[in-house]
Specification:
Helix content: 55-70%
Largest sheet: none
Number of strands: 0
Structural class: mainly alpha
Biased composition (Low complexity): 423-442
InterPro entries: INTS15 (IPR027844)
Region (Disordered): 423-452
Shape: elongated
Strand content: under 5%
Radius of gyration: 26 Å
């Protein structure tokens, strides 16, 4: 017999009296069972929008999150074993529910933040549940978590990311492959996870520098599938601008920040590495950031076709000018501090500074050429005005945007220090005539003219 929404609500309201005599685990299990039935009936009734009522949310807070009903009632607590059993029950519950709409509504009822004291319990339980889902491969929970990460304030998103980094990159040696292997089974979760960790680790301090294991994992993910960082963008309806409190729609801004700041950030920590007698991690990180930088540039070069398909070419900036302004401000501060580092020679520091600025110039050039960044040259000159001189950056700030027609092997041989620069802006060296073989645009990119003589430098850090 079909249950009406009103009967459904009454049914959930009557459950509390039957839950009170039960032990904490039994009560939580019983409530999850009834919550599943309640949401299934709500979806079946066609109620729009399908929304869990406040009384049901109160039951969740009382019997699953164990928030006290009132100040005079002490909250019930689970033992560690009971909590583990509850997590296993929740994993099975989401795994066995075949309808994604029901799963998403149930996950939202359990873990959408309400702005009350129960939110701390929500976050604690969510971190343990997602960590377990990674460990045992519960893809429905990871998919629901990806949606949660899209809709939740970034402060809480980075808290969840920190839990996973601690669990899989710090606390348990050898557990990184468990997290790494999910990229093929839940790419949506991986994309949101990358966005969250690039928001968390901004390289402003040693504590906010990504662990080498995390960096290696993300670099390998993007090398294997550059489109991974665009999954959220490709699968989400975009209506206007993103809420200012949410994570970015792609991790591109955070990845650019990582790659550009890395030479200076890791050189800042080199003294610690030297004192401990090991620079292996530092060297590994340099190579990983170099590879990651190349992968990010290749992602930018995938965008014209993708944006054209969505009708957004020239209309949507996936790299925000405000994010770049914050980055250049950080770079200015880091470069000012670089001269004070006595453990690094001035020649080495100059090399690292130029590498940092080269990477910034490359990112700006390729992002603008592929319309991931929509701004004027005047805007760029304004945000870069406090940075030291760099040949390539100067060319990007003053010259035309260059387009490339080869996304697989971007030209990487140009050096701003070459004796014969191919840039037309140099008065002593007129522009070269394009070769005949390059005169016609590549058929895959009919709208992009090809211009020779503007490759960008790419140098691994040392």
């Amino acid at each position: 017999m079909k249950i009406s929404p009103l009967d459904n609500l009454v049914l959930m309201g009557d459950i509390r009296q039957s839950l009170l005599p039960r032990d904490v685990l039994s009560a939580a299990k019983e409530l999850l069972y009834h919550l599943d039935i309640y949401i299934c009936n709500m979806v079946q009734s066609g109620r729009q929008p399908p929304q869990v009522d406040s009384k049901t949310l109160e039951l969740i807070e009382e019997f699953i999150l164990h928030a006290p009903k009132d100040r005079n009632t002490p909250g019930r607590r689970m033992s560690a074993l009971q909590e583990l059993q509850l997590l296993e029950i929740m994993c099975s519950c989401f795994q066995e529910q075949s309808r994604d709409t029901v799963r998403q509504l149930m996950f939202s009822a359990l873990f959408s933040l309400q702005g009350n004291q129960a939110d701390e319990s929500r976050m604690a339980l969510l971190g343990k549940l997602v960590s377990m889902a990674v460990a045992v491969g519960r893809i429905p929970i990871l998919e629901c978590t990806a949606t949660w990460l899209q809709r939740t304030h970034r402060v809480f998103c980075v808290r969840l990311a920190q839990v996973l980094v601690d669990d899989y990159c710090s606390m348990v040696p050898g557990s990184v492959p468990t997290l790494q292997n999910i990229h093929s089974t839940s790419p949506r979760f991986c994309c949101q996870f990358i966005t969250a960790v690039t928001t968390l680790y901004d390289l402003t301090s040693e504590e906010l520098t990504p662990p080498i294991e995390l960096l290696q994992m993300i670099a390998s993910w993007i090398q294997d599938d550059p489109r991974l960082v665009l999954i959220t963008f490709l699968n989400s309806p975009l209506s206007g601008s993103q809420p200012i409190s949410s994570l970015d729609v792609t991790p591109l801004g955070g990845l650019v920040r990582w790659c550009v700041k890395a030479p200076l950030a890791f050189r800042r920590d080199k003294k610690v590495a030297l004192s401990s007698g090991s620079t292996e991690n530092h060297q590994d990180a340099g190579l990983l950031f170099s590879a990651l930088h190349l992968s990010v540039l290749q992602v930018f070069m995938l965008l014209p076709n993708i944006l054209n398909e969505k009708g957004l070419f020239g209309r949507l900036a996936l790299l925000q000018l405000e994010s770049l302004a914050a980055l250049t401000s950080d770079l200015s501060r880091l470069l000012d501090q670089a001269d004070k580092h006595t453990h690094t020679s001035s020649e080495d520091m100059h090399t690292l500074s130029q590498l940092t600025l080269d990477r910034l110039a490359q990112a700006l050039q390729v992002a603008m050429a592929n319309r991931a960044l929509l701004c004027s040259r005047e805007d760029l000159r304004a945000i870069c005005s406090r940075l030291p001189h760099n040949n390539l950056l100067q060319l990007v700030l003053s010259g035309p945007v260059m387009y490339y027609n080869n996304i697989h092997t971007p030209p990487l041989a140009f050096s701003p220090h070459a004796a014969h620069s191919p840039i037309a802006a140099h008065p002593a060296h007129p522009a070269h005539t394009p070769l005949a073989t390059h005169a016609a645009p590549h058929p895959q990119y009919p709208g992009q003219p090809f211009m020779t003589g503007m490759p960008f430098p790419f140098r691994p850090s040392h």
